[in-house]
Design a protein that fits this description.
It is a single chain. By secondary structure, the protein is mainly α. It contains 3 helices and 2 strands. It has helices spanning 24-33, 36-52, 60-75; strands at residues 4-7, 12-15. Strands 1-2 form a two-stranded antiparallel sheet. A hairpin with a 4-residue loop joins strand 1 (4-7) and strand 2 (12-15). Helix 2 packs antiparallel against helix 3. The longest helix has 17 residues, at 36-52. The chain is globular and about 40 Å long.
Length: 90
């Protein structure tokens, strides 16, 4: 049976992750409050930000930036986009 969570991004009950995406309290919060759909979308967006902005994940400043953007993205707030990116119309 699929584990359901009340997704904080979509404000509805959706299938959750199978396990916390990383250790610690933040990973546990994501596990309990973020749907698989929202997490998969964040993973794609995160990759785009890292590539387009040429972020170095060894740099603490760049890691902080990604963490802040993840929090905004998963909360449904305004978040950073890659320069010139136009989301596909649905």
């Amino acid at each position: 049976m699929t584990r359901m969570v009340m997704c904080r991004k979509y404000n509805k009950e959706l299938p959750g992750l199978d396990r916390p995406p990383y250790p610690g309290p933040k990973g546990l919060a994501v596990f309990n409050e973020v749907s698989r759909k929202a997490w998969d979308e964040w993973q794609k967006h995160q990759t785009m930000l890292i590539n387009e902005r040429r972020l170095n994940m060894m740099d603490p400043e760049d890691r902080r930036f990604i963490q802040q953007e993840m929090d905004k993205f998963l909360a449904g707030e305004e978040y950073a986009q890659a320069e010139g990116y136009v989301p596909p119309s649905e």
